[in-house]
Design goal:
116 residues; alpha+beta; two-stranded antiparallel ribbon; 3 helices; 7 strands
Length: 116
Amino acid sequence: MHFRTYVQNSNYRFFGILLDTVLLSYSLKGNTMIYGEKERRDDFHWFLKNYDSLYSQYGHKFFAIQNQKILGVYDGMWDALDETYKISPIGTFCVQECTGDESGYTVSIVTPWIIA
């Protein structure tokens, strides 16, 4: 199953994943697992804490992370999603890129100002 969704918005076209960002709870083998904002934040902080060692061990990769454990290591974002979905429902793990520097976990947004 592939999670590539083509979205067109005005003049902008991009591939993306549309997931509900609110608390996700699901039933798995009779147990209820909750993967919400706290779990995502905990996984992200664990990723940051281990960032340098992950890069040293694996290089530039994409990590599927759930409950502060690595579910898989992949060459691309789509591979990480497609493969990890086979072992854990989408929305119950995060995928983080590790580039060796802060560009792997930060986003720069530039808003041009025109002064006339």
